[in-house]
Amino acid sequence: QVQLVQSGAEVKKPEASVKVSCKASGYTFTGYSVHWVRQAPGQGLEWMGWINPNSGRTHSAQKFQGRVTMTRDTSISTAYMELSRLASDDTAVYYCAREYCSSTTCSPFMDVWGKGTTVTVSS
Amino acid sequence: DIVMTQSPDSLAVSLGERATINCKSSQSVLYSSNNKNHLAWYQQKPGQPPKLLIYWASTRESGVPDRFSGSGSGTDFTLTINSLQAEDVTVYYCQQYYSTPYTFGQGTKLEIK
C-alpha cells in the first residue's frame, strides 16, 4: 500500500542540525512532490516546503529559508529534510506528506502522510 | 502570506447532530484560471498525522463518509459534519494551497456535548 515511513525520534542541542528521512513505497516516488509540515506540541500545522523528487527542485517557506535543506535519493525512494541552527522553538513533530495528483495534474494539498518524526531541541 | 482563521476554536455538539466549522482566508483562494477554490480540510486525531477530508473546497476524498461536506467560495468556507459520530470528535484544520507559504487555520476542536 502507499505509505511514507519516517525516521525515528531525535534529540538535539541548540545550534545543532537534524536530518529527517521519509521513505516512500507503494507508488512511483518521482511522480509526486513531497511536502514537509511541522507541528509544535499542542499547536497547529505549519508548512515548511516541498521537493519535487523528479527534478530535485525545492521551495521553502521564507521563514525557513537559509535553514532548511530538502533533498532526495531516488535510488531508495527517500526524501530528506535537514534543519540547521536548531532552537527550542523548533521542537515539534515533523511530517512528510505526498502531494495530491489526479490523472492529469498535481495540486499542493496532501493525501498521504508519514506518521511523523519527533524532534526535541534541548540543552 | 494568506492568513486562515477558523471559527470557533472549539465546538460541542451532541451525537447525531450537525457540526459546522468555518474557515476564513485573508484573501480570496479562488483561482480564476481553473475557477476552483484552493482550499482543503483535514481531520487530525491525537497522535496521528492529518487525514485529508475535502479538497477544492467541496470535493470529498475517496473513502471519506458522505456525512462530511465542504462548501464556500472566495474567502469563506464551511466544513459540515452531519449526524455526528463519536469517531468524528477530534481536531479539524483548513489549508489554503492558493499561494506559498501554504497556510493552515489554527484548528477547531470538536467535542461531544
General description of the model:
The complex is a heterodimer of chains A (123) and B (113). Chain A contains no helices and eleven strands. Chain A is an all-beta fold. In chain A, a hairpin with a 4-residue loop joins strand 7 and strand 8 (78-83). Chain A is globular and about 45 Å long. The termini of chain A are far apart. By secondary structure, chain B is mainly β. Chain B is built from no helices and 13 strands. In chain B, strands 2, 6, 7, 8, 11, 12 and 13 form a seven-stranded mixed β-sheet that branches. A four-stranded antiparallel β-sheet of chain B has the order 1-3-10-9, with no helix packed on it. Chain B has a two-stranded antiparallel ribbon with strand order 4-5. The N and C termini of chain B lie far apart (36 Å). The A-B interface holds A 35, 37, 44-47, 59, 61-63, 95, 97, 100, 107-111, 113-116 and B 38, 40, 42, 44, 48-52, 55, 61, 93, 95, 97, 100-107.
Rg estimate of chain A, integer Å: 14 Å
Tell me the major beta sheet of chain A: 7 strands, mixed
Mean pLDDT across the residues of chain B is 97
SSE order of chain A, one letter for each helix or strand: EEEEEEEEEEE
What's the helical proportion of residues of chain B? under 10%
Task: Report how far apart the termini of chain A are.
Answer: 40 Å
The share of residues in extended strands of chain B comes to over 45%
Low confidence ranges of chain A: none
**Total of helices of chain B:** 0
The backbone outline of chain A, from C-alpha atoms, is globular
The amount of beta strand of chain A, in percent, is over 45%
Assembly state = heterodimer
Helix/strand class of chain B? mainly beta
Tally of individual helices of chain A: 0
Number of strands of chain B: 13
Roughly how much helix do the residues of chain A carry, as a percent range? under 10%
Helix-strand topology string of chain B: EEEEEEEEEEEEE
Q: Tell me the number of strands of chain A.
A: 11
